[in-house]
Structure prediction request, 315 residues.
Amino acid sequence: MESSSNDAAGGVHELLVPAAEAVAHDDVSVFLRVTAGEPEGINGVLVDPLEVRYSAVSGADDVADATPDRRHSVPTGVETVIFTHSTAPQLNVHAAWPAESPERRELEAWLATHSYATTAGRPVAFTISGPAYATLTEGWVSAFSPPPPEPFTLPLPAGIDAWPDDADAAACTGADLELSYGGSDAATGARHAALLARNVSDNPCAVIGVPEIVFRNADGAAQASVGFEPYRPGVIPGRLVLPPGEQMLAAPQWSAMSTANDPDVTTFIEVIALPGTEPVRLDVTEHASSPAGLDILDGAQVRVGPWVQALEGHM
Prediction:
């Protein structure tokens, strides 16, 4: 198995890489999907026991390294192993072990000490899942994790002038801000909405922070177990001086959720714009973009970023 996989990977590498290098990398994507073993039906989906995505960038060695040598024993209880090579390589191991099994701990320790990722010079994430595909543990092969992202504030689009940063501007208060709902938009499987806050005072005022949000149904009850996560790894709030009459923007994002069984969708978004200010309840059904409410339901995961300069004509 190992030698035939090596030969196949090397042969494809020799054939495809010259063709790929003949054109700009932005114009072509070349990859090979290598599988091993008989596919198994899992939850109605056929899954290969081993899968490797090979690309010209990774080289044939990835296929050889990821393909198991059948002469060596596979730990009892391992059901599938999938290695996906991409910009963020991922190894997924599915086993029949319970969470606290010694086999799981042994495999986790073996992956953490294996030299593959350090030799390859790039991080490879791994996940070990158990019965019902519940995640048992996650980590990094060779204990080689990517560096944490450098903190940064969200940049403005090219060609947009930032508002003046008036060092003497006082902090905004609740009385300075008029909150409104700017509507929602959707792409395939993704959603985002716009929360707007206008400076209704006669002076510029400064803001640093992320709004606090509660999603409520038509009865006013808060959606349960909603998780919040950073808008983007490494993003931190920047100081924003809001001129009189201008408005700032915060844009919650979430993944589409099923409304097939007529659940209690979100009809109100309650916003605390700044620490210490009173909550303001916004009716999303009053906007033409969301007359039936938003599919933010119990258990939703929502990404929320800091207040930023709203662009002219946004939403």
